[in-house]
Design a protein that fits this description.
Radius of gyration: 15 Å
Protein name: Caspase family p20 domain-containing protein
Family: Belongs to the peptidase C14A family.
Helix content: 10-25%
Order of helices and strands: EHEHEEEHEE
Largest sheet: 7 strands, mixed
CATH architecture: 3-Layer(aba) Sandwich
GO biological process, one term: positive regulation of neuron apoptotic process
Shape: globular
Number of helices: 3
Structural class: alpha/beta
Strand content: 25-35%
InterPro entries: Caspase-like_dom_sf, Pept_C14, Pept_C14_caspase, Pept_C14_p20, Pept_C14A
GO molecular function, one term: cysteine-type endopeptidase activity
Number of domains: 1
């Protein structure tokens, strides 16, 4: 008798943000790395195969979701992104924007038939990148 396929989780945490010329763009997200590592351990204990990625550019984030389209999945797919962002957007560590709708599109039933009948759970934690905003107002978006 074969074992059931293991559910997958992709955890992306960006803590340091620099422009292409090396200038620091947004503040460092202290504590985010530790939180992501704790979440990864919890998901592992729940028998998820976890891929934890640190400080990914906007293109690398999109590429990670493109790669997930080709993978074998179990009963669920969980995605956690912890980064700076704005309404409907998260930023890569290069300060490049990634529209959340783009991620959802990559994993849609049309583009990714293998995930058609598998629930996809997204947790987006984004700190508002612009100074003067109230970060607590924008802290967590559940989709």
């Amino acid at each position: 008798m074969s074992q059931p396929r293991q559910s997958r989780a992709l955890v992306i945490v960006n803590t340091n943000f620099c422009s292409s010329d090396g200038d620091v763009v947004f503040g460092t997200r202290k504590g985010a790395k530790r939180e992501a590592e704790k979440l990864s351990r919890i998901l592992s204990r729940l028998n998820y195969k976890v891929k934890l990625m640190h400080n990914k550019t906007a293109k690398e984030i999109e590429d990670l979701y493109q790669q997930e389209r080709c993978r074998e999945h179990g009963e669920y797919f969980v995605s956690i992104i912890s980064s700076h962002g704005e309404e409907g957007v998260v930023f890569g560590c290069d300060a490049g924007p990634v529209k959340l709708t783009r991620i959802f599109q990559i994993l849609s039933s049309e583009k990714c038939p293998v995930l058609t009948k598998i629930p996809k759970i997204f947790f987006i934690q984004r700190e508002h990148a612009l100074a003067g905003k109230e970060p607590w107002k924008y802290a967590l978006t559940l989709i």
